[in-house]
Amino acid sequence: MLAKKRRYGFSLVEALLAIVIVAMGLVAVAATLGWVTRNGAAIRYRTVAATLADSEVEALEAKPALPSQKATYIKTVGRPATELPDDARMTVTSVPHPKMTEKRLRHVTVVIEWGANEATLGGKVVRERLICLR
């Protein structure tokens, strides 16, 4: 009787199954990298915008030259001035305090918005402060 030879290695089915499993893993890793990149950019934009808004509020507190009536001004704060997208803008609103006894107080709101066209990377940062005129 002839002895059966033992075969070493992988069969074609085993090799194809291994390739499919590895390919699925690579697709999952690629999708995760895209998500991480988008979220990293969104976090960076939010950090830059928060720092910029805080700086604006602190500058207004240091030299409060605010008008006696409600006032709003809009400033572009996107590239190249900051790392924010080109469409980023800062809106600063100053409103007198509603009580007549508090004439020197102003409610200041600083809003920085960006990414109106890109919902995934769009965002908004708001800072509010009560500032006393000197």
Account of the protein in words:
This protein has 134 residues and is an alpha+beta fold. The chain has one domain. Helix content is 38%, strand content 25%. It contains one helix and four strands, in the order αββββ. It has a four-stranded antiparallel beta sheet with strand order 1-2-3-4. The radius of gyration is 29 Å and the shape is rod-shaped.
H/I helix tally: 1
Estimated share of beta-strand residues: 25-35%
Number of strands: 4
Helix content: 25-40%
* Tally of individual domains: 1
Cα Rg:
29 Å
Sheet/helix structural class: alpha+beta
What does the average pLDDT come to?
87
Question: What is the element layout, followed by pairings?
Answer:
Elements: H1 12-62, E1 71-76, E2 89-96, E3 105-114, E4 123-132
Antiparallel strand pairs: 1-2, 2-3, 3-4
Provide a quick synopsis of the model.
The chain contains 1 helix and 4 strands. The protein has 134 residues and is an alpha+beta fold.
Keywords:
134 residues; rod-shaped; alpha+beta; single chain; 25% strand; 4 strands
